[in-house]
Request: fold
Amino acid sequence: MSTIGVSVPRIEDERLLRGEGRFVDDLRLAGALEVAFLRSPHAHARIGAIDAAAALALPGVVAVIDGRETAAALEPMVFDIAKIVPEAVREATAPAVRVHPMPALPTERVTYVGQPVAMVVAESRYLAEDAVDLLAVEFEPLPAVVDAERALAPGAPRVETEWEDNEAISFAFERGDVDAAFAAAKVVVEESFRSHRQHPSPIETRGVAAGVDPQDGSLDVWSATQTPHLLRDFLARWLGRDPERIRVRAPDVGGAFGIKHSCYPEDLLIPFAALRLGRAVKWTEDRAEHLAAATQGRDQVHRIAVAADAAGRILAVRDHAVMNAGAFNLLGLVVPYNTFTHLLGPYDVGAFGFAMRVAVTNTAPVAPYRGAGRPEAVFAIERAIDRLARELGADPADVRARNLIGPEQMPYETGIVYRDGTDQVYDSGDYPELLRRAREVVERERFEAAATERRRIGVGYAIYTEGTGVGPFETARVRIEPTGRVKVLTGASSQGQGHRTTLAQLAAEALGVAVADVEVVGGDSAAVPSGFGTLASRTLVVAGNAVSEAAAAVRAQALEVAAGMLGAASYELEIEGGTIAVRGRPDATLPLGAVADFLTPFNPARPRGAPSELAAESVYRPGPVTWSAGVHVAVVAVDLPTGVVEVLRFVVAHDCGRVVNPAIVDGQIVGGVMQGIGGALHEEVLYDEDGQLRTGNFMDYVLPTAGETPEFELIHLDTPSPLNPLGVKGMGEGGAIGPPAAIAGAVEDALADLGVVVHRGPLGPSRVRDLIVAAAGG
Amino acid sequence: MADPGGEREVRLVVNGVERVAAAEPRLLLSDFLRHRLGLTGTHVGCEHGVCGACTVLLDGEPVRSCLVFAVQAEGAELRTVEGLAGEDGELGPVQRAFHEAHGMQCGFCTPGFLISLTALLEERPGASEEELVDALSGNLCRCTGYANILAAARAARDQAAERA
Ligand code: FES
Ligand code: FES
Reply:
């Protein structure tokens, strides 16, 4: 029986339910020292003298390491991805990207609040924090800039004094005659929409531990990272060590959402300290550090214009966007280019003009957060389409339907170059059907029946496409043990997505064994020689196909050997439930494990030249990305006197290709939507004008709770991807892409008679009240 | 800096077993459980009383162990996630409900939810929907979107009501 498409209960759960998970902070490393950081209290300041005498005098303090020491030993950090601009991207958009090295610890200036300045290593975290209080650092404050548009204006304080301005990236694109289309249009709408800054904030913060083997000097690192192999390779280069002698493990990781993808100064500094001191060293981030110094997400402003004919057919879109990169342009085009390639989403638009400018500012660095540039794009275009519908006096869902790419247009070439340098082509999907199915189940009337003069009901839509399963590769190794157990080793790690279960299902399916007999090992750089990691909705596509291929190769191997053992031809054999059988000869069977046993080098009967184990490795290198899509519909209630917005119902019609484990897929969607709801209603990272962080704890940075969960309706319309053997598409991020736009549209709809326009979130009570008051008074 | 004061012995009962370990007065109960007693199932997500990941039962009441000093728990009876399985070692009903309803993803928040729900159902086996939501609103989960956590809570409640 196939295990694909079945909600197999998760293999991961039992340990976690018993409190036997192993997160980085749970590890007990013998004699480990602990670290606390002194972090910048200023958004921008010159660093003067650092006096560590009192700190070092405190019993239990082992070392104080500051930028002067690390500067001599560690090159400033630069990530390869920031430097990669494919030729085709260069030709199409002429990007200017400044490579922006980040010192592990700065020597001259700090450029955001929370930036690490010095690290104290002590016998315990308590002592390390005491010592941080005793460090005397002279700071000379400098003018700071927080807002991206202000940072790009002439005369703004400069974040990097040797740059002539704060522009880190710019690129532009034009397809078709945009000006002519606007001139010919019957209706033009133009507005500014902002995707405000948010914080991914998994419940487990970051953590790093490192130990050095006293015998051979090899380095063991445990990090709550999404990308153990990338971190290993990064550490090898930055610490000047052989990658073979570094092992990075991501044990259990408590959520990530993009924030644990980057290599951080702390990822480098903890191993550095362990090597320098010859002892195990551990650091667990606290929530205040996390909110100040881990990467943040969003923060884009779009000036977007849409031109349409009288029937609401969109003739052209023009969008000028500005993004805030924070204090370091860490990852180059990753986020802003994603915004560009996802702006038009599912719509068939004639002419398109786009320009993006990215500014550095004195705020925490911005990096991918679930969706990574897509929610920002969707907020801009979907809000603009709502304005267009209003202008036309048409139903917003009808206007969308009129402009969708049809299934008969698949594969659909957008005329845009994707970030990997290939032509952007939507491989499959039926967007009109997704919208139709979603509209069927909105149930607006049910909620409207309970509406009152003060409690208004509104419905809002967002439709998106999502390029998923980006390369370059992932490795998988599948081995059958003599016991019959199957081991799957993969470069992909997990932060809660249930990959152990999903990948076990794929291996079980390809091999003909029970899921329970498969054990998946990931998150360990020693498991397979090379790997990439879990990010950008890629694991099922890239690691999944690698596992499936490797398992199929092992199956073929097993059948060949078994054929000899059973005196049959391999095509006469089948495997079910871990047993190999000859068709039509019920007595001729062999457990899979017996084949592995037969191959052991100690077996004298083993045929000459046969492999010495039953195993295969596969490196899967995907081609262009495969496109998932979704329609989100929010039904909200807005309470007029208080401005409180409540999301009552959330409909998701979704296409993520072939589904392996429906329960896990639905869990990912709902989790993503809830993050989107949090961002739409409450969550906002706030800095004051001087760059002081106003949202440094969970009282001020407010995450949604169980009480805000709407009723969910999920619809699957899964068209298999033609681009990979399994037919799968990625889906880890999709849930978070649509909610801010859908909810903004719903709030506007609820307040339609007042003519309210939502230009930005979060839509907390005070902003909504302001909108109501301004509309009523204006 | 305040004088942290010397270490003293703290004696308490955790999951039915008497435990003794040294703690300086400022040591948080969460750190005491995790790093002195090695009970790392209780997690720490914020250390300022908001996320609920560190929730334990202290003399039957759910408390945030990051807001309690270990020395304050002297003589107390504690229950942590490690003590939720049945005597036969099988998962308890609340744990099973989370597994069956896919009420967990990364599992980092899960111990806190399990404890909060256990506390509620021990006191009110037939808890209403509102009481369930209320009891779980003090715990943050960033992965699941809560829908399946609430489904698990309802299933566990239905079972508890039946047993009661
Ligand atoms: S760690 Fe105690 S409430 Fe968050
Ligand atoms: S399951 Fe990850 S925080 Fe709840």
Observations:
- Chain A has 22 helices and 29 strands.
- Residues B 44-47, 49-54, 64, 66 surround FE2/S2 (inorganic) cluster (ligand 1) (CB under 6 Å).
- The domain at 25-82+93-142+200-294 of chain A is CATH 3.90.1170.50 (Aldehyde Oxidoreductase; domain 3).
- The longest helix of chain A spans residues 539-566.
